[in-house]
Design brief:
Layout (H helix, E strand, L loop, with lengths): L5 H8 L21 H9 L7 H6 L6 H15 L2 H14 L3 H9 L18 H15 L5 H8 L4 H23 L15
Helix pairs in contact: 4-5, 4-6, 4-7, 4-9, 7-8, 7-9
């Protein structure tokens, strides 16, 4: 783990990056058009996005699928903090209360076959994303059938992004739980209402 002194973090967050090129295009949503970008702006001293944010905003996974993966990481890791932060984003992306309840209560690996009764609230692509997240988060090894099930709905580059999203939020869950961020370490993941 890399230790970033707080003074360095404050310095990095205090000014606008210089927009030097990256391997992928930057995406900077205009203020008021993207709740995640607006939340990031609100945390910054000068209300702007960093180049890193511009790269991360280039994620082309459908919003419902991205948020399902993030919320599933909260469930599998019992990271209430992540769920609390992302449930409103998931709702803004179009996930319903019934779908959120399925994401919250489905036992790991329960969606091995799309169309099962338990997953009646989720479209086939979201069942595939749930399966993918469960295997990646719980076992790391993703069977070919599960990987191929999600790749039916995503391009190769989106599969890379889905894998990165699962990995990033697995790390994030361990980080926020391990450090007891916002005193949520022992708090159960909320039940969607």
């Amino acid at each position: 783990m890399v230790y970033v002194p707080s003074i360095l973090f404050a310095l990095l967050a205090s000014y606008r990056d210089d927009n030097l090129p990256a391997r992928v295009p930057y995406v900077f949503p205009a203020p008021g058009t993207d709740p995640v970008a607006d939340a990031l702006r609100a945390r910054r001293p000068n209300n702007t996005l960093l180049d890193l944010d511009g790269v991360l905003n280039n994620n082309t996974i459908p919003g419902t699928m991205r948020e399902l993966i993030i919320l599933r990481s909260a469930v599998i890791s019992n990271a209430a903090y992540i769920w609390i932060q992302h449930e409103p984003v998931a709702r803004s992306e179009g996930l319903t209360t019934a779908q959120l309840q399925t994401i919250r209560f489905a036992p790991p690996f329960s969606g091995l076959t799309p169309g099962t009764t338990f997953h009646g609230t989720l479209a086939p692509e979201l069942v595939a994303a749930l399966n993918f997240a469960d295997f990646s988060l719980s076992l790391v090894h993703i069977p070919d059938a599960v990987y191929n099930g999600l790749s039916e709905f995503l391009s190769d580059s989106q599969m890379v992004l889905a894998t990165a999203t699962v990995g990033f939020y697995a790390l994030t869950a361990r980080f926020v739980v391990g450090l007891n961020i916002d005193d949520k370490m022992g708090v159960p993941v909320p039940i969607p209402q």
